[in-house]
């Protein structure tokens, strides 16, 4: 299978995952999955509810989708709830000596991710396109373990980040 076809299948899968999350959030969630940035911005502005979306464009990960949407929305913070509890010097699932990095600049993030794979199914904490969008927009990004909902809630409700913060200002409060 070619990469473009794999990307299109991946987009459909991310939208299915988004639909599952939408149903889990029930009444707090906008009732449709936007398929474009404009649709997502309109949905959020009109409804005041949580808007969940998946992929938009082949060769662009959902990390990049989130970063571009955060930029377009003028967000104060991008939260990347992922399968690790922050950004590490190496993949902690493969390298026992990997160290968590509590704070790094967007430039340092780019140094870390620029050697990662970009094909369908690649697994990086965030992809290069998203890192570049974060760099140009200067939107801080918190990376937390999304498998523990309290991490996301603690960040949103209390500004407590037990993951990694990507920002140009090290002492920046999350909220």
Model description:
The chain is α/β, with parallel strands linked by helices. Helix content is 42%, strand content 11%. It is built from 6 helices and 6 strands; from the N terminus they run H-H-H-E-E-E-E-H-H-E-H-E. The protein has helices at 3-25, 37-47, 62-73, 106-113, 128-137, 149-158; strands at residues 78-82, 87-88, 100-101, 103-104, 141-145, 164-166. The strands form 2 sheets. The protein has a 4-stranded mixed β-sheet. The protein has a two-stranded antiparallel sheet with strand order 2-3. Helix 3 packs parallel to helix 5 (128-137) and helix 4 (106-113) packs antiparallel against helix 5. The longest helix is centred in the N-terminal third of the chain and has 23 residues, at 3-25. The N and C termini lie far apart (44 Å). The mean pLDDT is 88.
Topology:
Layout: H1 3-25, H2 37-47, H3 62-73, E1 78-82, E2 87-88, E3 100-101, E4 103-104, H4 106-113, H5 128-137, E5 141-145, H6 149-158, E6 164-166
Parallel strand pairs: 1-5, 4-6
Antiparallel strand pairs: 2-3, 5-6
Main sheet record = 4 strands, mixed
Q: Averaging pLDDT over every residue, what do you get?
A: 88
Quickly give the structural class: alpha/beta
Distance between the termini: 44 Å
- State Rg: 16 Å
């Amino acid at each position: 299978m070619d990469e473009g076809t794999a990307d299109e299948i991946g987009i459909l899968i991310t939208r299915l995952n988004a639909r599952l999350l939408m149903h889990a959030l029930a009444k707090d969630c906008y009732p449709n999955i936007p398929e474009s940035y404009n649709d997502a911005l309109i949905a959020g502005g009109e409804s005041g509810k949580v808007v969940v979306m998946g992929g938009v464009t082949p060769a662009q990960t959902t990390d990049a989708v989130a970063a571009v949407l955060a930029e377009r929305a003028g967000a104060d913070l991008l939260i990347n709830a992922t399968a690790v509890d922050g950004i590490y010097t190496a993949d902690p699932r493969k390298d026992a000596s990997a160290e968590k990095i509590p704070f790094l600049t967007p430039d340092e993030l780019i140094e870390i991710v620029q050697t990662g794979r970009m094909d369908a199914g690649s697994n990086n904490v965030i992809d290069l396109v998203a890192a570049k969008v974060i760099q140009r927009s200067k939107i801080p990004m918190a990376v937390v373990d999304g498998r523990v909902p309290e991490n996301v809630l603690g960040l949103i409700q209390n500004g407590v980040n037990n993951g990694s913060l990507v920002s140009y200002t090290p002492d920046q409060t999350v909220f």
